[in-house]
Amino acid sequence: KVRPPARRNPKPIQQTLLQSRTEQFSGAAMTNGRILAYGLLGLPLAFAALPIYVHVPRYYAETTGMELAVLGIILLGARLLDAGIDPWLGWLADRVSRPRMVAIALLPFAIGFVALLNPPAEYAASWLLGSLALTYLGFSAASVAYQAWGADIGEDSVLRTRLTAAREGFGLLGVVLAAALPAVLAASLSEGIARLSWILPPLLLVAAITTFSRVGVGKPILAAAQPLLPSLRRVFADLAFRRLLAVFVANGIAAALPATLFLFFVADVLQAEAASGPLLALYFVAGAASLPLWVMLSARRGRVFAWLLAMGVSIIAFAGASLLASGDVWLFAAICVASGLALGADLALPAAIAADLGERQGQAGACFGVWNFVAKLNLALAAGLSLPLLGALGYVPGGSAGLPALSFAYALLPLAFKALAAALLWRWRHSLEI
Known about the structure:
Blueprint: H1 13-24, H2 32-40, H3 42-63, H4 68-93, H5 98-116, H6 124-153, H7 157-185, H8 189-196, H9 200-214, H10 228-236, H11 239-269, H12 276-301, H13 303-318, H14 329-361, H15 364-392, H16 403-427, H17 429-432
């Protein structure tokens, strides 16, 4: 009898399954339809983020009569708590199925959002804190796992940039809807914001079904059972990631201050509260329209070059905002368009660089947990420091006192942080272009 020749170096069954599964979700299989299906879930997440971070301060100040100092302290506390759990959520996302983590997080996110924009007549402060905590928990868990999921299914830098651009592009569409719908749903902005909350659950359901049915799970998670603190130390041991975070912090504060004070500025400095929705929509439409241009430019000249150019555009566009006064709506609209064009780069490019660094470390979830922690810390500091400061300087929403301080905090202070971010990015440009 002749024995069949023995196979040399046979592959274990688990390795064969891993290879076939990875090949199934490789870049070649990532069609435009699947890229768009992945990005679609970003629409309802961003749809809710705009009211949470932009509308809530003025909404609660007007509808509940809450003092700015109290409101600022609650927002700061809730956002610090929210930011503090992100590194743990990122660590968790490296050890469980990321799609499953996203699915579980969507329920508290939807419930908390509806409660947040429908406060009772009494105990508004407690209601705000509790509903924010529930919304933040669901939103943060879903966002961290969703971003890490995108890093999994993207097999190279170009594909990760396209996936990030799709996610942020749909996110901008969600923001535009959230900005425009309150004026359509009701005559008053406050009532329109309350009705806006009931749009999220069906919108979230449709987007989630589409994303989960079309997008694969990506590479199986093979992270070692490393404790939280060593995992975070490994994240911060990456010099390039630390430098990227420093740029992101400066640039994020420059964006968080205007986001927190936008409605106050439009209503009290420009005296055009009714135009706040269309102006927000104009800003985000310009950002969505610019996304393909920034993606193409980054593919040709590099993401750092494109991001630097966007920062320059933003500084030039926003420099004149402090000179505006009552009635200068059209001038402010031009500023919204110009600064909105730079927004697309801010949303897509740094997150794509972070995705590359996370995959290089083999723990994209931990990296995005730290990333989202820093992003929310920026928003927390913007609300927790600027609102009490404006109150101390005599600014009262709806009044005429303290308007110069409002213009300074909204327009001039962000420019200093934006210039710092550009200087750091230029200095470290060679270590951040992967």
